[in-house]
């Protein structure tokens, strides 16, 4: 009798008052599992008062089907791939592991019909985990570019990765939507490879060498790794600069034509920062830097400055997460190619750019059409795919060669002394170009004679490129700009300078004075900014700075008065300083009073 009662006890189903007796019973009730599928939902079973009881947990069922480790070099995070069923409808989605325990994802993904019954939230979480069983971890990359798997180097892309042995399907990549078209291609055979590389070299016939060589060199420098500069392609509307940039971009994916470029300056700074970080070891075009002359120009300038500084300094912007944790910075890891009708202002920003000018008539339209057809047919992406495949088979050697050549070329200086960053940028670009030419020769796409000719043409193009950088750096240098503005103020009658006594100086027309209406004397024009005595000029610091800023208008000098004085000294424009007092201003008696002034050579202020 005792034995029969024991058997009856474990077969009995006790239903609580809040349960529906018409619901189908769980078929696994007699098993040792704590959680079971009950109807279309989940229930938990437990012993109460000596009887087995089922308590509803949720009106839906779910299980984890994927354990994802999302990697982005410096840090990683975990996501769960979940399959759920509610009222016969099956859904699949991904939930960050950090959000899984709180179960707030249920309403977000399943909607208001999904119910976790009162007091059952943690049971719902535990049930879902228990239904999931053992899972194999999957590694998912959140970026493009090179990674090492075992002893092999693999180039990650939006779809199939490429290694020394060809395409690889064992690497999973999850990218922002703007980067989903990054996919280089492998050639079908050696003849296809030669044809593709020759098509890519056809870009050199599209524009003058000062334009085409830096652009194509940047294309093939990009997959070799991080650089400390960006390219900026500038020209007025209708100069085909966006079309040129698109041809460069299509080396990394056929679908990224002029209408589908990955980046644009209408995006936020945060969005562009994320793209430039994820687009590792690739070229990233950011199109259309166009100041409108309104209040939004400052915001546009700020976006450009933040983006190019990140690329040039290899530093991202630190920020706090919602939980108060300091997130890892995300510096740019792409080679940026930007386009715009104007170049961003500021010496510091321009020092991080190689500026390429496109002038009216520079682009051969018939060649442009041919290149666009080749790009659309995938010829450029095939050339890049073959180059990446070639790098993968000798990655360490290529990196060592790149470092060595950059050091050698930079030590030669090349006379590019306009800014300390320029020799490094030129050396980096040239070294990358030489490596590409080695690949093209080994592929049979060019001869030794063509390789030598292409190196020579690149050298000549560099001279023209350096001249462009010099002009832009001089315009953006705050000290030189300050002097230029004062020269303009004196010539236009917006300012004048007196002699030591405050009277008409020698050569008055050169110092902002005009003949009086009677023709018998001279009249000072505008604001007095200083005094001139023989070969010396003494500027009243604050007044001269304000006159220059007023004349500059929206193109203001982007440094303060104190910083400007230091820049004048660094540029060798101050004739003397007060060494004893360690001050940049000197004491002089002018118009009978002691004054603190900036001492320049008078010739600096005369055009």
Give a verbal description of the structure.
The chain is an alpha/beta fold and 607 residues long. It folds into three domains: 57 residues, no CATH class; 277 residues, 3-Layer(aba) Sandwich (Rossmann fold); 128 residues, no CATH class. The protein contains 18 helices and 25 strands. The strands form six sheets. Strands 7-6-5-8-13 form a five-stranded mixed β-sheet. Strand 20 and strand 21 form a beta hairpin. Helix 5 crosses helix 12, helix 16 crosses helix 17 and helix 16 packs across helix 18. The longest helix is centred in the last third of the chain and has 29 residues. The chain is globular and about 120 Å long.
In brief, what are we looking at here?
This protein is α/β, with parallel strands linked by helices and 607 residues long. The chain contains 18 helices and 25 strands. The strands form 6 sheets. Strands 7-6-5-8-13 form a 5-stranded mixed β-sheet. A 5-stranded parallel β-sheet has the order 15-16-17-14-18, with helices on both faces. A 5-stranded mixed β-sheet has the order 19-22-23-25-24.
């Amino acid at each position: 009798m005792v034995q029969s009662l024991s058997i009856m006890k474990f077969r009995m189903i006790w239903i609580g008052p809040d349960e529906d007796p018409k619901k189908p019973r769980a078929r696994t009730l007699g098993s040792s599992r704590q959680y079971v599928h009950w109807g279309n939902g989940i229930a938990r079973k437990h012993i109460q008062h000596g009887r087995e009881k089922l308590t509803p947990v949720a009106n839906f069922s779910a299980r984890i089907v994927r354990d994802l480790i999302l990697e982005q070099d410096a840090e990683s995070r975990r996501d769960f791939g979940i399959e759920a069923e509610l009222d016969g409808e099956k859904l699949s989605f991904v939930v960050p592991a950090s959000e899984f325990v709180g179960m707030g994802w249920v309403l977000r993904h399943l909607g208001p019909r999904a119910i976790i019954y009162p007091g059952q939230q943690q049971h719902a979480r535990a049930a879902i985990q228990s239904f999931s069983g053992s899972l194999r971890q999957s590694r998912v990359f959140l970026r493009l570019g090179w990674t090492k798997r075992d002893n092999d180097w693999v180039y990650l892309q939006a779809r199939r990765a490429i290694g020394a042995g060809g395409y690889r399907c064992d690497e999973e990549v999850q990218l922002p939507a703007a980067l989903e078209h990054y996919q280089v291609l492998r050639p079908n055979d050696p003849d296809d490879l030669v044809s593709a590389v020759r098509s890519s070299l056809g870009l050199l016939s599209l524009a003058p060498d000062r334009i085409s060589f830096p652009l194509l060199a940047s294309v093939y420098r990009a997959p070799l790794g991080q650089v400390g500069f960006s390219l900026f392609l500038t020209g007025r509307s209708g100069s085909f600069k966006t079309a040129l940039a698109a041809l460069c971009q299509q080396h990394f994916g056929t679908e990224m034509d002029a209408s589908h470029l990955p980046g644009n300056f209408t995006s936020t700074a945060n969005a562009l920062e994320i793209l430039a970080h994820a687009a590792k070891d690739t070229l990233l075009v950011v199109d259309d830097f166009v100041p409108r002359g309104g209040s939004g120009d400052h915001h546009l300038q700020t976006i450009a400055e933040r983006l190019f500084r990140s690329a040039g300094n290899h530093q991202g912007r630190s920020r706090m997460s919602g939980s108060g944790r300091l997130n890892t910075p995300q510096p740019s890891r792409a080679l940026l190619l930007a386009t715009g009708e104007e170049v961003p202002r500021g010496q510091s920003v321009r020092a991080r750019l190689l500026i390429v000018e496109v002038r009216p008539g520079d682009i051969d339209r018939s060649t442009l059409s041919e290149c666009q057809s080749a790009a659309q047919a995938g010829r450029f992406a095939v050339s890049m795919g073959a180059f990446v495949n070639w790098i993968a088979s000798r990655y360490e050697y290529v990196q060592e060669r790149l470092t060595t050549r950059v050091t050698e070329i930079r030590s030669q200086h090349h006379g590019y002394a306009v800014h300390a960053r320029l020799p490094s940028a030129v050396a980096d670009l040239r070294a990358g170009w030489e490596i590409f030419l080695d690949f093209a020769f080994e592929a049979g796409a060019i001869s030794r004679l063509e390789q030598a000719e292409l190196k020579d043409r690149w050298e000549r193009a560099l001279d023209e490129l350096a001249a462009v950088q010099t002009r832009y750096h001089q315009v953006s240098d705050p000290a030189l700009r300050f002097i230029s503005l004062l020269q303009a103020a004196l010539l236009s009658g917006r300012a004048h300078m007196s002699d030591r006594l405050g009277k008409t100086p020698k050569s008055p027309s050169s110092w902002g004075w005009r003949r009086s209406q009677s023709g018998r004397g001279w009249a000072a024009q505008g604001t007095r900014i200083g005094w001139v005595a023989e070969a010396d000029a003494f500027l009243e610091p604050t007044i001269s700075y304000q006159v220059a800023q007023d004349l500059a208008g929206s193109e203001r000098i982007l440094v303060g008065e104190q910083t400007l004085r230091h820049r004048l000294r660094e540029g060798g424009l101050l004739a003397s300083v007060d060494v004893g007092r360690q001050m940049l201003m000197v004491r002089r008696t002018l118009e009978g009073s002691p004054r603190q002034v900036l001492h320049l050579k008078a010739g600096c202020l005369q055009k």
